[in-house]
Design brief:
heterodimer; A: six-stranded mixed beta sheet; globular; B: mainly beta; seven-stranded mixed beta sheet
């Protein structure tokens, strides 16, 4: 099945700066790439997603970039706030079905 | 909309016992997914149903694990003869259609096998 690599696994930034998380995938047929945020003790919640017919998507301070040739996608959080501190998971939905293959997660800590 | 409902929230079993986990998807959602989350392995896909039919169970351990969706309002994940390595948070998610659709996760069931 699809394999998704996610880096870095730990990220510490100062409030107001940017944070970036990178993911790569193997299956060129993958065509949907969601990002989930998970706070301690909570379930993962979708924050932004991108489909393979797009290269860039922005929702407020969240930017997702997709490079299909390189099979890479990334999340950029601009103007980070302490409330952005959480685990972030990237995922890829394979071309053969709807199941999501997740990266191992990135723990983001935003310091005031 | 109550979101995806999972019961119980916590379950403790002894080694060798059976565990049944329940999931109620969001009303109107046709796809139901089961995932397992551990610190070491992260989020792993187990199985999914669309319109109650099993579509993909490629992530399910071949022995001891089974899942069913007897009606559109609930799905169950059953683990027979539980082992300590089955300890994890089991997450159920549902989506409107399945493909390219946002998956909404439930709160999970934390299974601890002693």
């Amino acid at each position: 099945g699809e394999q998704v690599e996610q880096l870095p696994s730990i990220l510490r930034v100062q409030e107001g700066s940017s944070a970036s998380i990178n993911c790569s995938y193997e299956d060129s047929a993958s065509n949907y790439f969601p990002w989930y945020k998970q706070e301690p003790g909570e379930n993962p919640k979708l924050i932004i997603d991108i489909r393979s017919n797009m290269e860039r998507k922005q929702i407020q301070e969240l930017i997702v970039l997709l490079d299909k040739k390189a099979k890479r996608f990334s999340l950029h959080i601009t103007d980070t706030q302490p409330g952005d501190s959480a685990m972030y998971f990237c995922a890829a939905e394979g071309g053969t079905g709807s199941k999501l293959s997740f990266g191992k997660g990135a723990k983001l800590t935003v310091s005031p | 909309n109550a979101g995806v409902i999972q019961t119980p929230r916590h379950k403790v079993t002894g080694k060798g016992q059976e565990a049944t986990l329940w999931c109620e998807p969001i009303s109107g959602h046709s796809a139901v997914f089961w995932y397992r989350q551990t610190i070491v392995q992260g989020l792993e896909f187990l199985t999914y149903f669309r319109n109650q039919a099993p579509i993909d169970d490629s992530g399910m351990p071949k022995e001891r694990f089974s899942a069913q969706m007897p009606n559109q309002s609930h799905s169950t994940l059953k683990i027979q003869s539980t082992q300590p390595q089955d300890s994890a948070v089991y997450l159920c998610a549902s989506s409107l259609d399945g493909q390219y659709a946002e998956q909404f996760f439930g709160p999970g069931t934390r299974l601890t096998v002693l």
